[in-house]
Design goal:
Elements (H helix, E strand, L loop, with lengths): L1 H12 L3 H14 L9 H14 L3 H20 L6 H20 L8 H19 L6 H16 L3 H15 L4 H17 L3 H16 L7 H17 L2 H15 L7 H20 L3 H17 L6 H16 L3 H14 L9 H17 L8
Helix pairs in contact: 1-2, 2-3, 3-4, 4-5, 5-6, 6-7, 7-8, 7-9, 8-9, 9-10, 10-11, 11-12, 11-13, 12-13, 13-14, 13-15, 14-15, 15-16, 16-17
């Protein structure tokens, strides 16, 4: 059982979703009768984390609750441990529990509860380690809170918490710093500060380069994100350079992997955006059709990348004055937009304006000037 548990958490960390799911399901079938009862509350918590990250919030909530109930029984029956140690372990588990449950909110509606849990977790950790301690466990709480404020569309507050996290990650594993740089890059992108966005993606890439093989998809993803930032600046030469490098790195990996499929789809969609901005409509359509193909292979029609493709195709048809087709494509994009997406996001808000504009033209309420 112990090694099954380690395998499940290992697969989850590697984002081998199918293997992790199979391993967790195997464990959960035999868990109640297993000898390793002292692990049960932790196994249920890790199952909750796994399903939460897959956005299966019903299962996540179920396993978090089971974990909490088992932990209370576990810490009440420990004659071999000193009272001080039991209290310390219980507080530490409570902090971990609050942190992990708060770190996987499905959408903005759940973020207030996530914020409450994470602040509670941070408070417990500061009590255990000391208010003036510098420790990666404290940094993890600040980092998770920063991500929650990002979802709540509070990028300035998110940056403040990520900066606090960084203070605690200076001597911690590289992946903590990498994740913080990435979150800060996203914060600056939300603020429209592309210069600092690129700077922090570059820092995340540099940090990740020390931890991953030279063609790892993680490195390619950072290059793609840097390219997107340059697209926002309309710096098309730099965007093309980073997209070419990202695509070449993606293609050196196992292209049957589901996560890599999404990344490749997004990369080709970004090429579509680039060619559209250069006025190369045929090339743009070709790239977007390739992006669609990656999504079709995985039967994934409700992914944000698919929305992105529909949106860009609609814009191309709008530029070609094919307004009924443009309206159909943009309407399809809005129908598959993930439910937790803010309609005020700049891309979505702009697409809604375009859709309304095209409808007005078709209805004869707006006169086109040639």
């Amino acid at each position: 059982m112990f090694w099954k548990y380690k395998s499940a958490t290992g697969y989850a960390q590697q984002k081998s979703i199918a293997k992790a799911k199979e391993a967790f399901e195997d464990i959960l079938k035999i868990l109640p009768d297993d000898y390793y009862r002292h692990l049960n509350h932790k196994i249920y918590m890790h199952a909750g984390i796994f399903y939460g990250k897959q956005m299966n919030m019903d299962k996540a909530e179920k396993f978090f609750n089971m974990s909490w109930e088992l932990s209370k029984k576990f810490y009440q029956n420990h004659p071999l441990r000193s009272e001080k140690r039991v209290i310390s372990e219980k507080k530490d588990f409570e902090a971990e529990f609050c942190h992990n449950k708060g770190a996987v909110p499905a959408d903005a509606d759940q973020c207030e509860k996530a914020e409450e849990l994470l602040l509670q977790s941070l408070k417990i950790k500061l009590e255990l380690l000391g208010k003036n301690s510098i420790h990666p466990d404290i940094g993890l709480r600040y980092h998770a809170l920063g991500n929650v404020y990002l979802v709540l569309m509070q990028p300035q507050k998110a940056v403040e918490y990520q900066e606090k996290a960084m203070e605690h990650f200076k001597s911690s594993p590289l992946n903590n710093l990498e994740a913080t740089y990435q979150s800060m890059a996203i914060c600056f992108e939300k603020q429209g500060n592309i210069k600092d966005c690129v700077k922090h993606y570059q820092m995340a890439l540099e940090t990740a380069t020390k931890a991953y093989p030279s063609c790892h998809p993680k490195l390619a993803e950072y290059k793609r994100r840097i390219a997107c930032a340059y697209l926002h600046q309309r710096n098309l030469d730099e965007a093309r350079k980073y997209l070419d490098e990202a695509l070449a790195m993606y293609q050196k990996n196992d292209t049957t992997d589901e996560i890599l499929h999404h990344q490749l789809a997004h990369c080709h969609a970004d090429f579509g955006q680039l060619f559209l901005m250069q006025g190369e409509r045929s090339a743009a359509i070709g790239q977007l059709e390739t992006a669609f193909q990656y999504e079709v292979e995985k039967n994934n029609f409700e992914h944000r990348d698919t929305y992105y493709c529909y949106s860009l195709l609609a814009q191309i048809h709008g530029q070609l004055l094919k307004f009924p087709a443009a309206i159909g494509l943009m309407t399809a994009a809005m129908e598959i937009l993930p439910e937790n997406t803010h309609r005020s996001e700049s891309r979505v808000a702009n697409d809604l304006r375009l859709l309304e504009y095209w409808k007005q033209i078709v209805q004869g309420n707006v006169v086109m000037l040639h």
